[in-house]
Design a protein that fits this description.
This protein is of the alpha+beta class. The chain is 33% helix and 25% strand. It has a domain at 8-146: Gcn5-related N-acetyltransferase (GNAT) (Aminopeptidase, 3-Layer(aba) Sandwich), CATH 3.40.630.30. Helix 2 packs across helix 3 (64-75). The longest helix is centred in the middle third of the chain and has 17 residues, at 128-144. Bound molecules: coenzyme A.
Length: 206
């Protein structure tokens, strides 16, 4: 959202807030992925308010307080940034906010990160999730030097699974967890995917 109309003082304020963020901005053919910081809070509040976006994650939209108090701190972890990983927000060439992509900290494994993505509903179906995630995988393996990238989603989240499979991650397991307040189809479980550096570098079959 860096339209010409943005005031220079707002811009300066943003740059000031981004000081200390060490992750690079990543670019693809159609996307600019910039490090997610608190300046993106309003866009993320709006994204997380859509129950359809969170259908396979929370089964409902999140409140502003949940986003600001619980989720923004997880998305702006300084320890992740120090390692070159974390969350990025994506915009198209016209500056329209599309959603976020992440390489999240795996607490017990500093050589791994967990891939994630969440796009506005009107951005679905254009190949953006795959395009942005491909840039994060390249960053993870070629720049940060991670050994492994993993991901998890509900078994019934066909869109997310299709993205992971297009990227070359392998389905390595299915878990059925006990939830106090399960989402529909939770009984079909959560699926785990991963790719390691060797598989990332290996020539693809298709
Ligand atoms: C899942 C999500 C990221 C997919 O984003 P997207 O930009 O539409 O995905 P892409 O366009 O890159 O699609 C990649 C492939 O998945 C397929 N796909 C996308 N959504 C699908 C769906 N709901 N069902 C089946 N296939 C789907 C696409 O057809 C495409 O395959 P193709 O190239 O062979 O046609 C998006 O729907 C989203 O943000 N959902 C809400 C948040 C979410 O569930 N995140 C994952 C939680 S773990």
């Amino acid at each position: 959202m860096y339209a010409d109309s943005a005031s220079s003082s707002a811009r300066a304020q943003q740059e000031e807030k981004e000081e200390g963020v060490t992750r690079p901005t990543l670019r693809t053919e159609r996307l600019v992925l910039e490090p997610l910081t608190v300046v993106h809070t309003e866009q993320l509040v709006e994204l997380d308010a859509d129950p359809e976006v969170l259908r396979f994650i929370f089964g409902r939209g999140l409140t502003r307080a949940e986003v600001v108090d619980t989720w923004m701190p997880k998305r702006t972890r300084a320890d992740a940034d120090a390692r070159g990983i974390g969350y990025w927000v994506g915009h198209d060439a016209g500056g329209t906010f599309l959603g976020w992509w992440s390489l999240a900290v795996v607490d017990d494994d500093p050589d791994s990160a967990e891939l994630g993505y969440r796009l506005r509903r009107d951005a679905w179906g254009h190949g953006y999730a795959t395009e942005g995630a491909r840039a994060l995988l390249a960053h993870a393996f070629e720049t940060v030097g991670l050994r492994r990238v993993c991901a998890e989603t509900m078994a019934v989240n066909a869109g997310s699974r299709a993205v992971l499979e297009k990227l070359g991650l392998s389905h390595v397991g299915t878990r059925v967890e006990q939830w106090d307040d399960p989402l529909p189809d939770a009984a079909l479980g959560e699926v785990d995917y991963e790719i390691d550096a060797a598989a990332y570098r290996a020539p693809r079959q298709s």
